[in-house]
Amino acid sequence: MSRTALGMPTIRPVHGQGNLHADVDFPTAAKEEMANTQMRANIRHATHTIRGKRARVVEELPDWQELRTAGSVLKEQVMANLPELLEQFEKNFTARGGTVHWARDAAEANRIVTELIEATGSTEVIKVKSMATAEIDLERHLAEHGITATETDLAELIVQLGHDRSSHILVPAIHKNRHEIRDIFLREMPETDDSLTSEPRDLAEAARAHLREKFLSTRVAVSGANFGVAETGTLTVVESEGNGRMCLTLPDTLITVMGIEKLVPTFQDLEVYLQLLPRSSTGERMNPYTSMWTGSTPGDGPQDVHVVLLDNGRSAVLADPAGRSALHCIRCSACLNVCPVYEQAGGHAYGSTYPGPIGAILSPQMTGITAAENSSLPYASSLCGACYDVCPVKINIPEILVHLRDEDVRTRHGERPATEAQSTDEASTAAPETSAQKSSTGLAGRLFRRLPRVPSEMDVMMKGASTVMSSGRRMALAEKALPLGRAVAGRDRAISWLPGMAGGWTDERDIPAPPRESFRNWWADHAAETEDRVNQDGGFRDVPAPDRADDTDEEETP
Amino acid sequence: MSIEAKSEVLARIRGALQDTPEAPQVRRAYRRTSGRPAAEIREMFEDRLVDYKATVHHENTATLPERIAELLGTSARYVIPEGLDRSWLPGDTTGRRVLVESQTERAGTVLSVRELNEVDAVVTSSTVSCAETGTIFLSGRPEEGRRAISLVPDHHICVVPAASIVELIPEALDRVEPTAPITMISGPSATSDIELERVEGVHGPRRLDVILLT
Hints:
A: 6-stranded parallel beta sheet, B: 4-stranded mixed beta sheet
């Protein structure tokens, strides 16, 4: 395809790699996960506990909505000015003795971190829980290079010791209950014995004893960051246990991997997010510990300080004006905790590092909607809107879900070429190494599947519905069939099985029997009542236009 | 560092922003200054600390050394940063001994991590505290010391001068130097990682005594 240069280079979105893919489509994965009743009971218990706590501490703040609005607007500013803010951050972090690295994708970030660790001569690192490093599958990559990474966050440690996968943004081991955790500790920690109880206090104590020596002896730490302040070059980690402080303070070398969207413009802006984040995530007024560092400080903490700024598909998310606000996410996980779909299916069903409602909009955008089975994720929602209500930065998740469903349908119908929707990273010299590669064996097959094809049953049904509904006469005819539906439904007034076209729907759910009378018929009999009521009220009146001055918020007009 | 990676990431972002989105101005319509009297703010601070299982004490400069002696117990080696007001401390006894950390790294004045791990307690002052969230800010000033000393010992005795307590997070952040190494502390270390229930006592100090100094 040739293109005439118009002065402005057109950059095609470059998508991310790593642990961002659902390799099994969501409905299939969810069905399997839902068979695990213990997991569902654990998640139900945990999410219901946290919902109540969150609601109480949010209610306490009279200005919660003002904080949310500020949090949302500030992130809009970050996205609009991202190149300038990144360079400002780099300048300030560097001026204070830190080193800034840029990574186009997961492979590049992994390579940079590995080389930095190798340069220290250490083969062991301690890790603070970080979504970015989970996304790029850093731990596995380090292991392949002979470097052992020890997770120090309790939940991450449970996942690591249990050879398990994370299922929640904040509490990766949310799918395990205290008894299962005790069993893992007994099996994997040599210093524990049968006297260990399943009391959370005892389990926390066991983790303390297990990791103490690691904290005291390991010379290199790897962390993520919750916020990076462009104005000052300051990095921030928000945590509870003190494992973060240990990693950020005791080693000689500190390497932080941060997504490029994690910036805030000014130090003052932290006053918004440090109120929004803890109340939304753990339901606390404040998390026990927050650490901030700007480059290195002589005599205090690591002197060899690095940050890796990670793209890995974020710029591709940014390229879609209708979806880019997914980048506003501050990883609080409130949307997971209120989601009825997450509650039933659990985090593993989403495949990606980012589960739940935010994952359902973030993962397909970061990888491109045609990557692996990620096109199934935008459908993993009932669109109830609970996620939007609790989001501390007001990301309209349901709206983006619908947008992505549209993207998916249009891609399937060839309105967007699949090759463009999943542009591979041509510019990157590093080959994808993680699940992107693993799943690339079936790439040809998947691409073929996405190309224009024979209309599906759904297409036929929708086309049929469109034909019927667009004509009053045809709609009226269709409604004549209502009594037939009632006959199929039988006494329990539910249709539990339909053949053929609608069959897929009734596999999973009953369709309520059609009502005795259609709305259209009912309306024909009752439409006149509206006019009667209006007349009773004295007819339609003009409502005075709102005073424009009310709309100008703070500016006083003299 | 790869200049190529940087220029490509920036080019991708600029390409993604070709619609030149315009962000609205931020309105800081949330509370930025407190309207509450100081006594009420102090009470709120204490309430939040107790809620987090920290222990709160009220002292003046005359009663402070005795309280610190009581909290340390008769047998304790404890560390203080060089800039801490020595008049706050009790005298050493045969069982109780103070170790003074210098930030200027003179020989023998900086404890190794392992030495710190053998110390029973640490006494520091603090920069500012936020009542609404029960948060104490340390920022590496001479009376607070480097971050490791308030982290590794299992018992942190933290003095909060009453005048340094503010109600709101914006008021507190206004009072810290952004580029200093900052630690915000809200209660003893804790975790919510088991069934999302908070339990106190993990890697950071398990015992936090806060002394409100008037």
